[in-house]
Specification:
391 residues, alpha/beta, Lyase, Ornithine Decarboxylase, Chain A, domain 1, TIM Barrel, 8-stranded mixed β-sheet, 8-stranded parallel beta barrel, 12 helices, 16 strands, 21% strand, elongated
């Protein structure tokens, strides 16, 4: 994995060196081949369908270029995301507890499958079904239900998604009354939860399936076991072979799925920013700190800034030098962005590294998931990052 990323880093650095005018900074660069490789390999080790979570990266040019691998479906959390891909052929899953009538109507018109978060959304869908055909629906289950069917299930964070057991059963019964077909269920425990909870969740879900079948009019056809994969899931010590063996205990007629955003997109994205100025400051103890002031930062890549100071773990970028001049850093150097926020601290270079120079570029990896979509886009009215696609 790391060798492959080093190769992409190296190739990208050569592109910037040879044609710097082709990259207007700050910008993101996305690798199509890395997206496809991540998707195909993750799907293979899971042995199930794999749904892509669009909120992690909604760059439409990238999605179109990778559309041939997202044939198991795309999960959508807003009407604007739906509008981006409404005309596409991929299966669409609409999943948001705040989805209102307009959003659900648009979902039905787009032939999307609606993931029902609470019974009120079911009632909206029932009203729309009188005039339009609706796909069999999916019910979202709050993760605390998992503990009901497996007391050894690890603790999960409180959240507001889905239904507890009582409301889930009530929703199934109401769907039966409304003659709305239920395809299956959706489980999710949150980001980075897969390693810790996947095996226990599968055991819980297997027991839960037998319990819900008592209230169902039809056999359960579909189960989304959620996701929560890390940026570098290949390096995690998870026994996928054992997990696939466990999943084989589910009925063969049941379509099993997982969903992923970070696990597919993170390593496929890079953030490129150019150094405008270099300066040094002495503190009250005469300690010298070097700073490289860049044209991109918190306003274009909020996650890179990691504003929670107590937990800040700054990334170490690759410096792309245009003149190959080497000056050793005598002290650590910090890279900062172009805003007036003291939290606009985006990276670090260690003492002994090559000292950054004005006009050089800083290249950050693992910036493909959420870095662009989860950012303070209107801060200071600073320009948004450009985006470029490479193979």
């Amino acid at each position: 994995m790391h060798d492959r990323l080093n190769n992409i880093n190296g190739a990208l650095a050569e592109m910037v060196k040879s044609s710097p005018s082709n990259f207007k900074t700050p910008c993101y660069v996305y690798s199509v081949s890395e997206v496809k490789r991540n998707y195909q390999e993750l799907k293979s080790v899971l042995g199930t369908e794999l749904i892509y979570s669009l909120k992690s990266n909604s760059n439409i040019d990238l999605i179109v270029r990778c559309g041939d691998v997202f044939d198991d479906g795309i999960e959508i959390a807003s009407i604007n995301e739906l509008n981006l891909i409404a005309s596409g052929e991929s299966t669409k899953y609409i999943n948001n507890p705040s989805a209102d009538k307009n959003f659900i109507r648009a979902a039905v018109s787009s032939k999307a499958t609606v993931v029902i978060d609470h019974v009120e959304q079911l009632e909206i869908l029932a009203e729309l079904s009188q005039r339009r055909k609706v796909n069999p629906l999916v019910l979202r289950v709050n993760p605390f239900v998992l503990k009901r069917f497996n007391v050894e299930h690890p603790s999960v964070r409180n959240d507001h998604f889905g239904m507890d057991w009582q409301h889930l059963v009530g929703c199934i019964k109401r769907a039966n009354e409304l003659e709305l077909k239920i395809a299956g269920f959706h489980l999710f425990k949150g980001s980075y939860s897969f390693n810790k909870t996947a095996v226990a969740t599968a055991k819980s879900a297997l027991s839960m399936l037998y319990a819900v079948q008592e209230f169902m009019q039809d056999e359960v056809e579909f189960l989304n076991l959620g996701g929560g994969f890390s940026e570098d899931w290949r390096a995690d010590s998870f026994d996928f072979a054992h997990y696939r063996e466990l999943l084989s205990e589910f009925p063969s007629s049941l379509r099993l799925a997982h969903e992923a955003g970070r696990g597919i997109m993170a390593s496929a994205g890079f953030f490129l920013t150019r150094i405008r100025y270099v300066k040094s400051i002495l503190d009250e103890k005469d300690n010298l700190t070097e700073y490289a002031i860049c044209d991109g930062g918190i306003a274009q890549n909020f996650l890179l800034a990691q504003t929670e100071n107590a937990f800040r773990r700054l990334k170490y970028p690759q410096i792309i030098s245009l003149n190959e001049k080497y000056i050793e850093l005598e002290e650590d150097c910090y890279l900062v962005g172009s805003s007036c926020s003291k939290d606009d601290l985006i990276g670090q270079l260690k003492k002994g590294s090559n000292k950054p120079q004005v006009g050089e570029y800083a290249l950050f990896n693992y910036c493909g998931a959420y870095n662009s979509s989860y950012t303070v886009s209107s801060f200071l009215k600073l320009p948004q990052a450009n985006a470029y696609i490479i193979e």
